[in-house]
Amino acid sequence: MRIKLLPLFTMLMVLAIPAGFLQLAVAEKPNVIVIMADDLGYGDVSCYGATSLTTPNIDRLSAEGLRFTSGYCSASTCTPTRYSLLTGTYAFRGERTGIAPPNAPAIIKPGTDTVASLLQRAGYATAVIGKWHLGLGGEDGPDWNGQLKPGPLEIGFDTCFLLPTTNDRVPQVYVHDHRVPNLDPADPLWVGRQKPSPDHPTGLTHRDTLKMDWSHGHNSTIHNGISRIGFYTGGHAARFRDEDLADKWVEKSVAFIEQHQDEPFFLFFSSHDIHVPRMPHERFQGKTSLGFRGDAIIELDWCVGEVMKTLDRLNLAENTLVVFCSDNGPVLDDGYKDGAIEQIGDHRAAGQYSGGKYSVYEGGTRTPLITRWKGRIKPGVSDEVVCTIDLAASLAALTEQSLPNDFFLDSFNVIDALLGKDGAQGRDHLVQQDNGAAGTYGMRAGQWKLHRYGKKTARNVVVETQLANTSVPPFQLFNLDDDPAETSNVIEQHPDVAERLKKQLDNLIEQGRSRPAS
């Protein structure tokens, strides 16, 4: 009699379990959306202390998730950070990982395991939408009028819709999978380093026609009233308006989410906001007191809101891990006269931290980093050290994928910290780099931060004017607990700590990997 009653008892127990718990129990492979901002500083959003503008959608993400006070990217410029996020390997270990030029070949070669290929093997549909800036094509560079491969589809993405370089570099066209859409064969696209014929205006020859003037280095081919880095001609039917980029990323991202709502998906939403040229859509222009830089921040916030609304509409929020981050810290004047300096007021783009883009001060790599998984992550604030380079190993652990020994050399499994589990710990050390060309590094281990300079100046283009191209000693040491702004070099007071960090940094660079081989 008891045997016959057992199935009925079991059914009653199952019915008594809350529906949300059942949904969590079967959600072994949550959807994953990584939203990466571009040049967004620690202090640029209101949940991290900004008061000159409000970012309600990013704030909601924070209120419903976990806000990290020690969230990092691995480099203070875009290409190396994106390389490290996808490959789980410090960019200084790779080739051509500095800021990629317009005609750069694919930096991540076919056959390289990436976070996308890991999740692809786990049964995920995968997409990257937005800024790429990791090169396209073989060793001769991209064939803009033909097939643009290898690219994202050769390293684990099922589909892509890209800004191929970064928008202050030519060309201003999209790339869908392997081709430039809407390209007219009768008007071929040419991209090169040599100056084209005189009938193609540049920021030098036609400066008075620009709708946004350049301040340094962005004075080559003009498109949409803005001069760029590099030269190109043709492809007019395929060109976009700068003002429409954010709308296009949202359009394509929403379509991908809708298409794959019934299966696990991984979306890398790679925003171009708030990188220069800052030319937000007209409906955002003039909406802040900070000029176009501030306006671009609220455009970014709108994008986050549209993604969240899509998850809510499709009832996917409780089965989706959202990671919000930035590729590096802030910069004000990065080549255009867009009011970023003149209208900054009391706004502190890097918050309490010094430096920004191009530097190894904390402001260069410590950025907003938020995780949200409704019903799984308890809302709160975490002081654990986590980095975008760790997404690969962490998502591999979450989806029960093994890490191959030859790849993801510096990615650590910090999934418990990202999910806010009690007692979970983040990284105990982190190497930070600038663009990588000069061998300049930051080395954080606990409360201590070592700077090692491969050049005599600390480049930091007009974020903190007192640090811009200033002379620096070969090494500096800071106690971040006492001096988070890195204003007091204490290397003479703590030579033993400095020597320990020097050796640790040298070993990490020389041994070729941080993560122990499994």
UniProtKB/TrEMBL annotation:
<dbReference type="Pfam" id="PF00884">
    <property type="entry name" value="Sulfatase"/>
</dbReference>
<feature type="domain" description="Sulfatase N-terminal">
    <location>
        <begin position="30"/>
        <end position="399"/>
    </location>
</feature>
<comment type="similarity">
    <text>Belongs to the sulfatase family.</text>
</comment>
<dbReference type="InterPro" id="IPR024607">
    <property type="entry name" value="Sulfatase_CS"/>
</dbReference>
<dbReference type="InterPro" id="IPR017850">
    <property type="entry name" value="Alkaline_phosphatase_core_sf"/>
</dbReference>
<dbReference type="InterPro" id="IPR000917">
    <property type="entry name" value="Sulfatase_N"/>
</dbReference>
<keyword id="KW-0378">Hydrolase</keyword>
<dbReference type="InterPro" id="IPR052701">
    <property type="entry name" value="GAG_Ulvan_Degrading_Sulfatases"/>
</dbReference>
<protein>
    <submittedName>
        <fullName>Arylsulfatase</fullName>
        <ecNumber>3.1.6.1</ecNumber>
    </submittedName>
</protein>
<dbReference type="GO" id="GO:0004065">
    <property type="term" value="F:arylsulfatase activity"/>
</dbReference>
